[in-house]
Amino acid sequence: MQRTFGFIYKTVLYSFAIVLVLFALFISALRYLLPQLPDVTDQLENIFKERFRVEASLGSISADWGRNGPELVLHQLRVQPAADKATRVDIEQARILLNFWQSAGSLSLQYDQVQLDQLVLHYDMRDAELDDASSGIVLSDNLTNLLLNQLDHIEVTDSTIELVNLLGIQRAIDIQDLRWMNREQRHQGVGTLTFSEVTDNTLDFIIDIKGNDVSALTGQVYVNAHKLDISPWVQQQVVDTQINQAEFNLHLWLNFAQNQFTEGLLQLGEQALTWQVGQDQHSLRIPHGELKLRPYGNSGWRVNSNPLTIEHNNDSWILPTFSWEQTPRSTAMSFVDVPLAPMLELLNLLGSEGAAVSEQLANRSAQGTMDIALQQSLEQPLRWFAKGEQLSWGQIAGVPGLTNVNLSLQGQENRLTWRLDGNNASFQSDALDYDDAWALPYINVSGDFVWHNQQDWQLYIAPGSRIELEGLPIAFQARLQPVDGSVMVNARANSVNEQPIPAAVLRQHLPVVMGDNLHDYLTVAIQDGVAHELAMSWRGTIADFPYHNKQGEFEARARLTGMNFKFQPDWRPVYDANVVVNFNNERMHIVATDGQLANINAQRVDVVIPDILSGPDAYLDIQASIAGNATELQPIFNDSPLAGSLGTTFTELQLSGPLTSQLQLTIPLTDAPAVLAEGYADLSNVTMKVESLGETFTDISGRVRFRNDKVESDDLAMRWNDFPIEATLKTEQRKEDFYVDVSAVGNWALERYQPLLSGALPWQANFNLSLPTVGGYAFRWQQTADIRQINVQAPAPFYRESGTEGSFQLMVSGDQESILVNAEVDDFGLLELQLDSEEQSLQSGYMRIGNEFSQAPSPNVVRLNPRFMVDVNIKQMDLEAWQQTYQSLQQLIPEKTAASAWATRLRPDFIQLTTDSLNYDVVSLDDVTAVAWPSAEGWQARIESQQILMDVIWQANKADNNAIKIRADYIELNSGIAASENTIEQADTPAPEATTRQAPESFTGLPDIYIDCQRCQFDNYDLGEVSLHLSAADKVLTLERFSAKHRNHDIVANGSWALETNTKHPQTHLTGTFKSADFGEFLETYNVTSMVRDSSATIDFDLRFLAAPYSFDSKTLNGTVKWNLGQGYLNEVSDRGARLFSLLSLDGILRKLRFDFRDVFANGLFYTNFSGDFNIASGIVNTSNTQLNGAAGDMEVKGSTNLITRQLDYDLQFVPKVTSSLPVILAWMINPPSGLAALVIDRMLHDAKVISRLEYEISGTMDDPTIKEVARDSRAAPIPPEVRDNVDPNQSNNEQPQSGTDGASNDQQREPTRQPENN
């Protein structure tokens, strides 16, 4: 058994050895023979074509024996799926290793390994996307079986995959090594690859496939990149950025089933990028991320990302999801809600320019998110779309900043369509405002942008584009394109407002691009108003703007109404004007019409800036035609840079009245402009008030020219107090002051001052005004006049006739402290005044009237130290003439006028009068010395002369209680009437009528008058002690009290004088009482021949009539007179009694009031009482109780006298004492009661009877009374012989002649008449 086993063992061993030797020999022979194989390339090419259905070309074939068996080497092999396809495989060397033993065992070729070196797979995606799908790339089953089943191991080294997309763009993937293994149903490839264009680092990948059916393969592709350095590729993309690090880490899984990709996952590791721009370091890092892949469309992929955290420098932000859709025919990418700010900051990766933009954007607060989409298909160029909402960014590189806007962009190739819209947005640009953004309540702008290159592009803003600034909606369109290194602009814009645009809106939206000077100027200049339309047209290059040489045209125009426009900040505005604002190239022209400059009508104002962009040389030229009241000139220039020149001039020379003017202002637009103001003003009927003189000039006409501080006129005509003046005017700014010089001449007609003045007054004057730069002023007015042609109707020494030599000089000078006035008229009139300038109150003054000074001043001058003294020293003074002159002056100087105010202001406080003779009416005073001065009680005066010595106080310090109080030591006045004229007129002569005089309208202002005189005498009449008080109201002058007391005679009276009103007539009322212990003596004291002897008297009277006191009206006389004479007798009974009743006539009453009773009685009549009452009504005097109780009998009188018709109607009864003896009767006849007519006595004597009662009727008139006896009761009585013998029988029945005494008085023994006593 052992031997058998041994044999078998040796047999097998030897057999195996023999086989090995034979096989070795075979192999050796095969190794030797293989290189010697014949050229079979054509056969192999045919085999590829027939068996694998591919086009192949083979350069050469070689064979060798390898470690495991024979090796077949194919050189320069190219395989194409189809001859008409670009897809191909080029293999520099394909080494095929056969597995000898497996082949021998299976009796078929078994490939142990295939090594492909320098393989280039050129895959053109366009081959698979031809319209004819049947002509696409299709691999045969033999080929797929070869690759999946027959080749167990395939190695690929130093190979490249060239991918050509549908656009023809080729990308290369370098395969360093690939090991592909097939194990029945599982196929796996492991290798490394690199993207040489991107990085030098390699990526690891694994391909794991299950299944042998090429149409139903399932598996996964895995790619791993660890610390992939892509910095070289990134460096190539940027120019001036130093890429320091670009590291890429990822894991990619791609799953497929049924030969179709089903899903994929890209897992991002840490991605890091650092770079340097200049000296600034930047970094970008993505810590991790994840992207999912899904099949899309026909052989396409869709990649969706999860949010990615991106850390940029020191900030981090989230990139929301994005989508990438890739098909063989198209590529599409979309990003949603991409934050704008961080994306813009990544621009610093683009180099210095990008970094600069990024840095600027970092300071511009870019905000918002963008949705971005890109799409490119085979048939069309790349299209992209971007949309953002509520975007905000600051201005950058001339691009305006916007906030809260929506932006949509749509581009294709070199064309971009864009749209910008939004509500409540804002607009910021340094061309608009340096600091603040402009509000945009609404924006909707769209257009196109076409780009060819930097020198060929076009930006188009479509018609209908609209932006709405606050209150300013604007529609516009534009086209911009480059031309010769600049940009050509062709644009139009206009406002589309429905309501007028307020000026505040215009001010708010003035762009600073127009120049700071112009912008600042218009911001201040445009005050108020509304704009109705705005329009702009621009055609030209930006480089040539503002087209000084007409290379282009820029025009902007605005029409405004109710405009308030201020030339300068310190000028008053033109307001309520119609304005057209026009910008034409470099020129700005504003035309304002029908406006108001203050209260002056600005008919037309042209405001021109010749070159708005001339920088520091820019200036403003204003030309204005104005018309209005010249009063407004002063405040206009006071509120201007010309306040120190023209403003000061117009402050001093205040003008009012119509004015037309042409004004031109040249104002440099600098911080401290030197304004040039020039022009002229035409004056017509203008009024001017010279402030320093306080004088007003009217009807000024002429032209005044001015150029800054120089004001000139040589044809001024004006009137002062309606007197004509011709004048010239010059002003200039001197080194230390502003100087005004005025020369004036005139020739005044003085007829208006008649009767005081008449004739002509030629004169000349010069006025100088200095306004120092340090403040204050100084002036001088010097005037001389020739008064030879003047007539002066005034008391001496002012009286003069035309032709008399004379001169007048006036000089007024002053400053801010005081004003000096000096006036001289010949050598008899002098006035010197010093006034306070500010209050224009009197400080000191002196006036002299007369050729001589007073020899010795009044002691009161030293005591009172007056401020303004008036010294009057003339030979004679007619006070009435001076009063008339004063009244004439008062009429010439009405109250509440400037002259009246000056007269009040210049009231003297000491007046001294010295004259040899002072006359007033019939009163004459000799050697008069008078002084007057104000005191605490009022004005006081001391008047001394030969005739009077009195003190006068005028209390005028109380508005409601003015009074004049006179306290006289004595008053001895003489009427001056000749003695012959002083005799009492004859009884038959009627009294003269009262002189017609004009009653005053009111007694308002008339002071209370008090007169207290210790000893008063008028002519030879001694009035004794007199006291009087008058008071006045509006329409009533009241005699409060009148009293006169001389010896035992007193009279006390009061009364009133009421003026006429609308409802009442004027009225005079007088009431009082007269008392005398000896009435006859009282009458004789006043040189009145009296028939009353030894009789006291009491007379009460109350009378009134409807007229002034000086216009007695008998028709309206009413009142009562109650009189009573005590025991006494009547002397000198006159003629036959015909004048007895004159007591009751007006003639008699007036004469009795003058105490003239000489025409009543010739001899005497004794009585114990003689009294009665007179009742007067409407001019009719009635008495019913006039009675005389005489020694011889009693008499009673009743009746009336009509003072209007002078008719008499009386009944007289006389009852003799019948118990008396004849001597008593004779005594009665000698002394008849109440001056009974001589005719009655004669008849009684003729009858020679005893009379018991006599009744008479008295009629006729007061001038021709008629006495008729109507009844007699008598008895016979013896007549004394002496009586009967003395009676002339021829007179018994005839009326006796009238005389001062009748016939009866001739038979009566006369008593001696006492001479009147003067006391």
Q: Please, could you describe this protein's structure?
A:
Residues 1288-1307 have a biased composition (Polar residues). Residues 1265-1319 are annotated as: Disordered. This is TIGR02099 family protein. It holds the Pfam family YhdP. The chain is mostly beta strands and 1319 residues long. Among the domains are: 37-168, no CATH class; 184-377, no CATH class. It contains 21 helices and 69 strands. The protein has a 69-stranded mixed β-sheet that branches. It is rod-shaped and about 245 Å long. The termini are far apart.
Which secondary-structure class do the elements indicate? mainly beta
Integer-rounded radius of gyration: 72 Å
**Portion of residues in helices?**
10-25%
- Tell me the overall shape: rod-shaped
Q: What would you call the quaternary organization?
A: single chain
Task: Offer a quick outline of the entry.
The protein has 1319 residues and is mostly beta strands. The protein is built from 21 helices and 69 strands.
List the topology elements.
Blueprint: H1 2-33, H2 41-51, E1 55-65, E2 70-80, E3 88-98, H3 100-106, E4 111-124, H4 141-150, E5 153-164, E6 170-183, E7 186-194, E8 203-210, E9 218-229, H5 231-237, E10 242-257, E11 260-268, E12 271-277, E13 280-286, E14 289-296, E15 300-305, E16 308-312, E17 315-319, E18 322-326, E19 330-339, H6 340-345, H7 352-362, E20 367-377, E21 383-393, E22 401-412, E23 415-428, E24 438-453, E25 456-469, E26 472-483, E27 486-495, E28 501-502, H8 503-508, H9 516-525, E29 526-541, E30 553-566, E31 573-584, E32 587-597, E33 600-609, E34 619-629, H10 633-638, H11 643-652, E35 653-656, E36 658-668, E37 676-690, E38 695-707, E39 710-720, E40 723-733, E41 737-749, E42 757-772, E43 778-786, E44 790-792, E45 807-815, E46 818-825, E47 829-836, E48 842-849, H12 859-864, E49 868-878, H13 879-892, H14 898-905, E50 910-920, E51 923-934, E52 939-944, E53 948-955, E54 963-973, H15 979-982, E55 1008-1018, E56 1021-1032, E57 1036-1046, E58 1049-1058, E59 1067-1076, H16 1079-1085, E60 1092-1093, E61 1097-1105, E62 1118-1125, E63 1128-1130, H17 1146-1153, ...
Parallel strand pairs: 4-5, 48-49, 49-50, 54-55
Antiparallel strand pairs: 1-2, 2-3, 3-4, 5-6, 6-7, 7-8, 8-9, 9-10, 10-11, 10-12, 11-14, 12-13, 13-16, 14-15, 15-18, 16-17, 18-19, 19-20, 20-21, 21-22, 22-23, 23-24, 24-25, 25-26, 26-27, 27-29, 28-29, 29-30, 30-31, 31-32, 32-33, 33-34, 34-36, 35-37, 36-37, 37-38, 38-39, 39-40, 40-41, 41-42, ...
